[in-house]
TrEMBL record:
Residue ranges annotated for the Quinolinate phosphoribosyl transferase C-terminal domain, each copy included: 133-297
Family annotation (CDD domains): QPRTase
BP terms from Gene Ontology: NAD+ biosynthetic process; quinolinate catabolic process
Catalyses which reaction(s): nicotinate beta-D-ribonucleotide + CO2 + diphosphate = quinolinate + 5-phospho-alpha-D-ribose 1-diphosphate + 2 H(+)
Keyword Transferase: yes
Protein name: Nicotinate-nucleotide pyrophosphorylase [carboxylating]
NCBIfam families named among the record's database cross-references: nadC (TIGR00078)
Source organism (scientific name): Petropleomorpha daqingensis
Enzyme class: transferase
MF GO annotations: nicotinate-nucleotide diphosphorylase (carboxylating) activity
Keyword check for Transferase: yes
Length: 301
């Protein structure tokens, strides 16, 4: 395995990860106040471990999967441990994006036991959340395997955790299409009402942000045709039955990318994908994924 803390290929910046690690540990150790720079001073805030564990006691802790799934966030979890135990030795047992089974050891950390236990919950919260999203995403990707459609996430993310959660979607085989309000223009019914028409809204966006891709929400085949003729790059096909989606694909397929959304479930995912749309947009990937159950098992000595 490579360096367990390596962020290469994650798309996550060093600065953002460092800030997340600090914020997450401070939430647990100082009630949100800035974390002491000295690891020993930070660990001292764990009143239970400080009272029950000698400062010189060393041990090895294993980050273990308690359920089958797809893992994500392991480099961030590793950095949580190193923040409180900078001299710890880390050994990777898995990498982000791997399918794992119950009982698999994902990461082993050898260091001061006080520090390992002080970091435990923060590391688990990050990795469990990210792995839950990756696992849920993989279920959707598997459900539509063999079709041309891809699974997309949305902006329905936990405040402050969007980079991590969208990275977790990628670990599960999904695709990020819109990171925020700045990189794709999404014209919905309220924008159309304010602008006066779909064409007016598209024109206004083109003039204001000529390099930004434009997506238009459509509820009917007629609206889909209107949006494409107005110059939309993508169509968001909202709450359309599979038969209607097939009609839209026949009318405008190839002239714009087509994204089905609204009311999608795993039970109908393949039927929707087989209509010929390019994407299935699933907000539940980030707003409703259960965590993947992970635990930290200490080996004394």
């Amino acid at each position: 395995m490579n360096d367990p803390t390596d962020l290469t290929g994650t798309g996550l910046s060093e600065a953002w990860v460092t800030e997340l690690v600090e914020r997450t540990l401070a939430e647990d150790l100082t009630g949100g106040a800035p974390l002491p720079a000295a690891p020993d001073l930070a660990v001292a805030n764990d009143v239970t471990s400080s009272a029950t564990i000698p400062p010189a006691q060393y041990g090895t802790a294993d980050l273990v999967a308690r359920a089958d799934g797809v893992v994500a966030g392991l480099p961030l979890a590793a950095r949580v441990f190193l923040r409180l135990a900078p001299g710890a030795t880390l050994t990777a047992g898995a990498a982000d994006g791997d399918r794992v089974r119950r009982g698999d050891v994902l990461l082993s950390i050898r260091g001061p036991v006080r520090a390992l236990l002080a970091a435990e919950r923060s590391a688990l919260n990050i990795a469990s959340r990210a792995s839950g999203i990756a696992t849920h995403t993989r279920a959707w990707v598997d459900a539509i395997e063999g079709t041309k459609a891809r699974v997309l996430d949305t902006r329905k993310t936990t405040p402050g955790l969007r980079p991590l959660e969208k990275y977790a979607v990628r670990c599960g085989g999904g695709t990020n299409k819109r990171m925020g309000l700045y990189d794709v223009a999404m014209i919905k019914d309220n924008h159309v009402a304010a602008a006066g028409s779909v064409a007016a809204a598209v024109t206004a966006v083109r003039e204001r942000a000529p390099k930004v891709a434009v997506q238009v929400e459509a509820d009917t085949p007629a609206q889909a045709v209107e949006a494409v003729e107005a110059g939309a790059d993508f169509l968001l096909l909202d709450n359309m039955a599979p038969a209607v989606l097939r009609e839209v694909v026949a009318l405008v397929g190839g002239r714009a990318e087509l994204e089905a959304t609204g009311g999608l479930t795993l039970a109908v995912a393949r039927e929707v994908a087989e209509t010929g749309v390019d994407y299935l947009s699933v907000g539940a990937l980030t707003h409703s994924s259960p965590i993947l159950d992970l635990a930290l098992d200490l080996r004394a000595g």
